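Protein kinase domain-containing protein
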Amino acid sequence: MAAGRVDVPRRTDVGNLNWADKNGYDYPSTRRNDGFNLGPRRAPELLLGAKTYSTAVDMWSVGCIMAEMLAKQPLFKGTSEIDQLRKIFDTLGTPNENIWAGFSELPGSKANYSKQRYNLLRKKFPVASFTGSAVLSDAGFDLLNRLLTYDPDKRITADDALKHDWFRELPLPKSKEFLPTFRPKV
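Predicted structure tokens:
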């Protein structure tokens, strides 16, 4: 979601997001010359050349944003589409037909990627930090894993994500009446 005016939400594609001013001009800081815009949040099916687009792409981006908020840095920060795929595969393991039906039919799947057999995502979000508190609970990690599922057909939907147990863990979200308000700068 994005807002043109404070009270007018707009649906956006967070996976391929570019910021533009009110006249539609792209901000130079978000556009790269090589066309690799906001790659850290692009779904692997797009990076591998999939022709179909579904809301699953946006759910992948939500997972990347969730991880970025928790880690305070992008989870996958490649310098090109190929490097981006390497970063994803190094963290989540290299996909195959067993975990992603149709993977081998994607144009980019023919490249020779290093084989990473294991999902190492939990190492990025340990059960306990140096302070002893959890960086991400088991329920939160489950949601993150479901958001970052390779197979778009098996990736969690927005409706199911909102019903996930992680959103019912303590501390519960505050009612909006208890949240600070800020006047928009016009």
